[in-house]
Amino acid sequence: MLNKEKTREAIKRMGEMYPEAHGELVADNPFHLLIAVILSAQATDVSVNKATPALFAAYPTPEALAQAPLEDIMVKIKTIGLYRNKAKNIKACAAKLLSDFNGEVPRDKKQLMTLPGVGGKTANVVLGDAFGVPGIAVDTHVERVSKRLHICKQDASVLQVEETLMKKLPKKTWVKAHHTMIFFGRYHCTARNPKCEACPLFDLCQFGQARLGKKQH
Fold first, then answer.
1. Which residue, 114, 131, 148, sits at the end of a domain?
2. Residues labelled as active-site residues
3. From CA 97, how far away is CA 89, in angstroms rounded?
4. Total of domains in the chain
5. Measured between alpha carbons, how far is 182 from 128 in angstroms, rounded to an integer?
6. Which domain holds residue 201?
7. How far apart are CA 97 and CA 112, in angstroms?
8. Phi and psi, residue 201, nearest 5°
9. Angle at alpha carbon of residue 109, lines to 106 and 112, rounded to 5°
10. Which pTM value belongs to this model?
């Protein structure tokens, strides 16, 4: 397991590779970001960004989305995976924002997680990117990178990965660190063909050392 010092060194090196790491979902206000993040579950940010301009143009506010016919919402997002269920969730989410939060996106994690389609990861992304509230959203990239680098245990749950990263990284860096890890996992330490041969983190990575060691024997 990487200790606190080496974990921070690993994130620092990732940050040098991807200094511009940021959330890639396109949204111009907290409500649009919330909807985009819900839609991004088990889908690519690229696919979400292709669908949301028409969706937000038609239904720019919680009021408009809550009143929209479900079939019309489905048509707007049908290029996104699981679109039927997501259409129900974002319509219900908009309605609950109106009934419980005066149409405003709450800045509290527990309150956010009462909204349909919103789990811990979605809440952390919205809080971090819309409001600057420190949090680490553990997606598939963050989980994979954390386990390959042995920052956390191999059998750690998503929540345990999040808690381990929070313990090992300074709170003020959480939002930036999670974006940095996503970029590193998305573009370098990929699921199928990680670029171990040319990795600035190779000396810290048991996974990469073992993988290249097997190739050489």
1. 131
2. 121, 139
3. 12
4. 2
5. 14
6. 4-21+137-216
7. 9
8. -105, 10
9. 50
10. 0.91
Task: Say whether both 60 and 91 belong to one domain.
Answer: yes
Chain position carrying tokens 């979902």: 25
Angle (CA) 120-47-87 rounded to 5° is: 60
Strand residue runs (E) in the chain: none
95: Cα separation from own chain's centroid: 24
Indicate the residue among 84, 112, 131 that finishes a domain: 131
The burial of 42, by beta-carbon neighbours within 10 Å (0-12 exposed, 13-18 middle, 19 or more buried), is given as exposed
CA dist., res. 120 & res. 112, Å (int) = 9
In 3D space, the residue among 165, 196, 177 whose CA is nearest the CA of residue 11 turns out to be 177
pLDDT in tens, 158-216: 999 999 999 999 999 999 999 999 999 999 999 999 999 999 999 999 999 999 987 65
Report the distance separating Cα 59 and Cα 61, nearest Å. Answer: 6
7-26: burial string, b at 16+ Cβ within 10 Å, e else: bbebbebbbeebeebebebe
Q: Side-chain half-sphere of 124: how many Cα atoms within 13 Å?
A: 20
Reading the block at residue 63, the tokens are 């009021």
Residue 118: per-residue pLDDT: 97
CATH number at residue 80: 1.10.340.30
